[in-house]
Amino acid sequence: MKIIACIKQVPDSEAKVRAEGGQVSWGDAPLVINPFDEYAVEGALQQREAVSGSTVTALCIGPESAKEALKHALAMGADDAILVSDPAHLTGELDTVGAARVLAAAIQKIGGVDMVIFGRQTLDSGSGLTAAQTARVLGWPMLGLAGQIKVQDGSVTVERVIEEGRQSVKSNLPAIISVVQSIGEPRYPSFMGIRKASKATIPVWSLSDLSVSAPAPVVTRSELMSPPARETTVEIITGESPTEIAEKLADSLIAEKVL
Amino acid sequence: MKTLVYIDHFKGDVQPASWEALGLAKSFGSASAVVFGSGVDTVAQAALEHGADEVLVADDAALMDFRAETYAATLTALASSHGPDLILFPTTTRTRELAAMSAVDLNSNVITDATGVEVNGDKLLVTRPIYEGKLFEKVIASASPQFVTIRGRAFPKPEQQVGKSGTMTKVEAKTDALTTVEGYSVAEVGVSLNDAGVIVSGGRGVSNNPSLQPPAGMDDKQAEIWRAQQGFKLVGELASTLGGAVGASRAAVDAGYIPYSNQVGQTGKVVAPDLYIACGISGAIQHLAGIRSAKMVVAINKDADAPIFKVARYGVVGDLFQIVPALTAAFKKKLGK
Predict the structure, then answer these.
(1) Percent of chain A having pLDDT more than 90?
(2) DSSP E strands: which ranges in chain B?
(3) What Rg, from alpha-carbon coordinates, does chain A have?
(4) Which of A125, A153, B184, B217 is the most buried (most CB within 10 A)?
(5) Number of domains chain A contains
(6) Which residues in A lie closer than 8 A to residue B296 (C-beta atoms)?
(7) Of chain A residues 50-89, which have a CB less than 8 A from chain B?
(8) ipTM of model
């Protein structure tokens, strides 16, 4: 199988993200592979192991610096990586439909793809839309929020994790899949993997290489706000016994009408 | 503003934020509810009772199971013929995919997890959390129809007027499918984190009860998980006494104490309960971002310096294995349960 893992680069989750002059600032926190996308790479590598003769390509839209995220995927074990980057035409953040159209074009240019795996959402915008939109642009089946993937005789079955439990869904290949954490902990980059990644040459495709024009955003940001600071001073409840403390706390919470 | 409101349900059980979306739509003028499925008269009637002026129903055996491609094609056809300015959804696993696909069909766009929606002339202003709730952005949407999914508990829920009648109009189902639903294993999920008014969460601390003696034959890791599960039982008893949901920190999930679906904060859920009780959770920055919309936080932790106390209104510095069961007992007594 020819498997693609789609990834994005985002500020580290430890970053103290702030609004500064109408822009998002994460200080000197590092940019990393979106943590949900590490599960996508993990899922792709599991499928490569399950179906012999498979390859995994990591695919990313982003600036030149996003090669570092692709190198993480290579270090985890991906066979190769492609960056779609076009600073002249892709200014600012792509909306998800725009990203889906670009990714779909890249997937078609790669050609002969059997399976494309996404993480469930990104840590920055967090919309969780791009996988389904890429599927729609390509006209491929969408198997979302998979906790388990099984390929057999040209079709794929996933265990989809939904609010009410699990749903088993099947489709033909090629298919677009998004994965959740139950797919398994992402493997750590191996020493050999890191060496290979550091030497890798990652091809960069522009929008004209993909024969797509820069999608026009239909949503513009008018304001960026920090969430209101929680104005609270903690009142520590003390007492002679757990029962006394619990009674005092229960009384306070009942009086606060938060139950 | 002509608004359609998609009512999300699983086998007839409506996701409560659907009604919140309907209430929001009504504040802009008239609202048509949209119900898809097979045998969904009850859901359609409930939509009328929650304020819909009319209900557009696609009722077809082929829509028995949610499948993104059939539901999206049905919605796209419906939106093309009705020409709404806005389509509102509750944010759920299904509606993300449905809205995503239909927006592609209609050359539009989806704004997810809205916590504020204002109409200004022919423009929509939508507020939503980004970076896991560390920031909020306000965006101006100019697409038509604009797709917006709203976050649970961000908007008031309309009163149900039992017996209210209204127009129900059948619409055509589009049934060309690319996927087959093979079956379900429905979990006993209890109250969902997204809709919960009260959440009681456990962290790594729930495994630290030294007075418990694990059954013989367990290795250290098994014993740790066993201890943690005993701890989560106490958390669960408090949650169910308060009619709430059980949450967990990433540390507890990563340690294998409880499934990912319970995780609050980084790579988990952003929640907005009235009351959040954190038991044995230190309060990593990602976790604090995930509970920022909670109206009140209570922290129970043996470490007085834990960051969780900085966002808490009430705190108890002590042993959660003594405090949590005592709190359950106190609420049972005081709330008459």
Answers:
(1) 86
(2) 3-6, 9-10, 13-14, 31-37, 54-59, 86-90, 110-114, 116-120, 123-130, 135-141, 146-150, 167-170, 179-186, 198-202, 245-248, 275-279, 296-301, 314-317
(3) 22
(4) A125
(5) 1
(6) 253, 256, 258
(7) none
(8) 0.95
- Contact predicate A109/A59, CB 8 Å: no
Please, what are the domains in chain B?
A: 3-170 (3.40.50.620), 198-334 (3.40.50.1220)
Q: Which residues pair with A116 in a beta bridge?
A: A4, A176
Residue A117 maps to which CATH number?
Answer: 3.40.50.620
Residues B102-111: tens digit of each pLDDT: 999 999 999 9
| Alpha carbons A53 and A42: distance in angstroms, whole number | 17
Q: Min CA distance, B210 vs chain A (Å)?
A: 17
Query: Would residue A43 count as lying in a domain?
Result: yes
Q: Is residue A226 part of a domain?
A: no
Q: Looking at the domain assignment, is residue A250 inside a domain?
A: no
Looking at the complex, does the CB of residue A124 fall below 8 Å from at least one CB of chain B? yes
Task: Count Cβ–Cβ pairs < 8 Å, chain A vs chain B.
Answer: 265
| Domain interval for residue A70 | 2-205
Give dist(CA B301, CA B311) in Å, integer. Answer: 13
What is the spatial distance between Cα B99 and Cα B84, in angstroms, rounded to a whole number?
14
Q: Which residues pair with A4 in a beta bridge?
A: A57, A116
- Which chain A positions have a beta carbon within 8 Å of B134's beta carbon? 16-17, 227
Tokens 């009351």, residue located: B275
Please provide residue B148's backbone torsions phi and psi, each rounded to the nearest 5 degrees.
Answer: -135, 125
Mean pLDDT of chain B: 94
pLDDT by residue (tens digit) across A83-96? 999 998 887 778 99
- CB contact at 8 A, B205 and B248: no
A46 DSSP assignment? H
What burial letters (b/e) apply to A36-58, b meaning 16+ CB within 10 Å? bbbbbbbbbbbbbeeeeebebbb
Instruction: Note whether B61 and B33 are within 8 A (CB).
Output: no
Query: Distance (Å, rounded) from C-alpha B328 to C-alpha B321?
Result: 11
